[in-house]
Each structure stands twice: as C-alpha cells, then as structure tokens.
Amino acid sequence: MMPSETDSPWFTPHTPIRTATAEDTAQAGSGAHGPGHPDEPARLLDPAYQDEPAYQDEPAYPDDLSAHPDDSAHQDEPPYPDDGPAPADPRFHPSDGPPVELAPYTIPAVPATGWDPAPSPRRRWIGRALLFAVLAVQAALSLRLLGAAHPDEAIAMIVGRQELDHLFDGAPMTTDLVDRIPGAPWLYPPLAGAAANASGIFGARVVSLVLALATTVLAYSLTRRLFNERVAICGAAAYAVVQSTVVVGFYAAPDALAIALVAVSAWIVVRTARGPVALVLLAAPVAALAVAAEYAAVVALPAVLALAVISASARKGRGPAALRALLLAVGIVGLLLPFGLLDDIAAWSPTQGHEARSAGSVLLSAARWSGLFTLLACAGAAAYVRRERMYESPEDDEITATRLRRAALSAVLCGTALLIPVLYACLGTPGVMFRHLGFGMLFAAPLAGVGITRLVGAHFRNPQLGILVWVVLLALGLEQASLRYQDGPDSGRLLSVLRLHAQPHGRYLTEVEGLPEYYLGSVSKPDQWFSARRGTEYQDRAGVVHRGDDGTVTAVRDGWFNLVVLDSTAPSAMNRALADALGAGGHYRLIAQFSSPTGDSGTYKVFLRY
User: For residue 376, which of 68, 441, 451, 473 is within the disulfide window of CB 3.0 to 4.6 Å?
Assistant: First the structure.
C-alpha cells in the first residue's frame, strides 16, 4: 500500500499545497525566476501541473537525510510565508527588465598616461628637486679636476689681465697670445682675467662651472618645452655626466660661455614660438655673443635657425615660421658685421697649432668621447619619429606633430651632434674637439632623454634599464674627464725647471704657450716668450728679415733664444724643423724631458743655450 502525502516525513501542516491561480500567473513574471522563463505562466495554467508545488525548480530531496545534513536544521521553518508567493529579489524592480548579475565592483578606465597635461605645481617642484640633484652630481664631477692650468687656460687669463689693464689704465698690449684666443679677445678673456686676479686659476674655473650648470638648467627647460618633465630630467641627467660637459665645466676657456649663450638663444627661440614673429629677434644678440665668445659656436647657428622654423610651423604655418628664421639670421649677421667678426670667423680654423691625424682616428676619438650619448639620442630620434607618444608625453592635442615635423626636429637635434665629428675628420685633426662636442650634445640632450624614457617604458616598467644606461654614461664621463687632466706631461715639473733658468731680459721660445707667461710672471714678462706655433720675426746677422716658421728656425740655428721648449703634440713638421736647427747650430743642450704618466701623450723637452 502506497503511503499518503500526509504520511510523508516531508509533509508539514504549515506548508499547504497550493495550486496555481490567476493571481499566481500575474505575479510569475516578477518572481524569483523572473521573465527569464517565458513558459512559466503557461506551465502554471496547464492542468497537468495543477497538483505539483508552485516552485518545482527546487531539487527534490532524497529520502536519505544523511546526504544533506544541513537541511535538518531548517525542517521546521516554512520556505515562504503563508500569505503570498515567494518574494522577488530586492535588488531588482519589475520595471527594470531582466535581472542582471552584478559584479562586486567596477574597474575604472586606466588613462594612457600617468599625468594630466595641465600645469601641475607638484610635478614642477619634483622636477626641480631632481634637477638640483643632477646639478650636484655635475658640480662634484667637475670640482674633482684640480691641477695646474692648461695652456689654453693660461692664454685666456694672460690676455684677460692685459685687456683689463689696457681698459682701465691704458697700458699697451705686450703679449702676442691675442691671436690664440678662439674668439673676440674683449669678451671672455677680461672675465677670466678678473676672476684670476681675485682667486687665481680656481676663480676662473669656478666661472666656467657656473656657466656649465646654467647650461644644464637651460637644457632641462628647453627639453621640457619640447617634450615634458620626465624627458627633460632624463636628458639633463645624461648631458650632465658626459666628458665634454664635465671638462668644460672646470676649464677656464671660452667654451663654457659660448655653449651657455647658445643654450639661451635656443631657449628663447622655442619660448617665443607662440608669440609674435618679431619676438624671435630677442635671440639675435645672444647668438651673436655666443659666436663672438668662441668662433666654433657658428656650427650651432643652423640648429638655432632650424628650431625657429620647426617650433612655430605647427601653430603659425610655414610662411611665418620661415620669416622667424630669416629675421633671426639677419639680426645675427647685422650684429656681427660692425665689429668685423665675420672676417675673423672665416679665417679661424680649429687646426691651428694642432697635429694632423687621419679621419678614421678622429672619428674613433669622437666615438670614445660621445659615441654612447649620440647613439642614445639617435635611438630616441628613431623611436620619436615612429611614434610621437609612448606614455612619456601628455595627451595634449596642442603638441601633436606630424611625422614629417618629428623627423625634421630629430634631424636638427641629432645632426649637430654628428656634424662636429665629421667636421673635424674633414679637417684632419682632433684639436679641441673634446670641448666643442658640447655644442652638439646640448641639442641632442632632448632626444637622449626620449631614448631613456622609451627604455624605461610606460609607468616606469623597466627603470633598471634607464639607470643602467645612466650609470654607464657616468662611468665613461668620470674616467675620460680624469684622463683628460692626467694624460699629459707634468707641467708642474716643467715650470720648476723654467723658473730656475728664466731671467728678466732673456728670450724664450716655447711650443707650450701660456703656461710660462702665466706662472713665471715674477721672473719674466709675457713679451719675452715667443710662440713656436705661430712663427717669429727675426733679423739675422746679415740684416735679412725672416718671418713665420722660417724666422723661428733661423733664430734657433743662430742661437738667438736662451731657452727652447718643445712639445711633441705640436705639428710634426715644425718639430722636425726645430730639432734639425737645434742640432745644426750647436748652441743648445737638452736639460729636461717630461712625458705623460700613461706614456701615450705628449712629451716636453727643454733645451738651454750654453
């Protein structure tokens, strides 16, 4: 006999079996199952299902209670109230449509960049703090380079002191070293002479250090205007530790002043790009002063003129942008012409007084001194041309540039860095290329910053790569700058020998210009020292006047000089001629010889007349 429903252990008097009614049918769409079951109303009205419970979707419970031990705790509780159907999900309303399963939280949209393109005081001050740290590192690297003055430094201070005496006291210029100044003698030498009168060679070098630090600040500001703070700090950090920057930063020569003035002119050109076209003329006197300070700065003028076009072409159009460059060029030429500096610039050559080398040797030296930095800038240029922004530029439509404009800007910035080694290779001498490389690296610094940021990646994904590149640049700059001061003959020992034999009325021939005149001022006068690199005017016993190299060789052969100092780094043709004259005349004997500690640089030889 089959048991009845009342005999079932699952039956309770509090849960009566109900059949579907019209009211149940009306409420079925808003029940727990919702309108997601379109056949539910028809199912409830079908007579075949009248004897089944309304909520047949519940799984049937087996007779074995042990399979569901948790169910025994709820056997006495009715599944739903007696007075109505099952309640609807409180998170939904019938008018909301089908119920949707909600996630516990919503992930917000991630921006493409890590900052807002709008000006940010916080970001500005963070950039300034990092820039101050970079300047501290640069100053520490430069201040390590202590030692005796180099010939070019001594020449600048001697000419500067005489220029000051001539300006304030009317004293005549007695030195013939004025022609060795690679710029206008009335611009940088008086500044170096005044600093030397106050604190000696250290004071003159501090002036260069201040100028070099100012150049790094300008490079940061220029890069920030072309790109942003992140690229600017990376570019400034790379520029601050290369050999040229470190050496020029503590070298009493016109290079630091000329590079700083070029940086100011480039900054003005970019800063005034949004203003009226005539504002670009503010950069003309600064650029003219840069060329006057050192004639080598003329190689940077094409880059400044090109920046005048590129920085304004996107906002003003090609016509006004080209007009800016034309106005700037006319202004620079108009300022240089009255002083006769154009002729001096045309006559100047970096090969003067320097030994000739092969083009391959010059390019190899340039690769050692600036190769990694230039390679980094070229890589940044290629990445920038291919893609304008890769998470290092703010999403600002105002700075959007076409690929052609990006390629032109990259060619201008990297082209100057590549132009200087090629120029010296064509001239066939390294000369003072290690200092003039600073002009090119100043313009390449923004793209070097782009190269580092592309290595680091979005949201500082690979900071170790950027740190690694900077550490390698730092190590190379540190070693090369130290070798620049150490790799040379001992000028201190040379001066001690010359001090013993110098007399107030003697005549002295030297290929080491500047050092004796500067350090031996207490025992000799500048006009007693003659430069073997520039020739001598000499009248022999027969009354014949000899000039230039011929005059120098004839005077040595006749024993006219009391002392002769030779430098093996001087032009080899002149060295051979003087060596032959010293041996043929029979008036001199070798009393001292000094070589560099590493043995791969020049040698000083001192000959005394007997």
Answer: 451
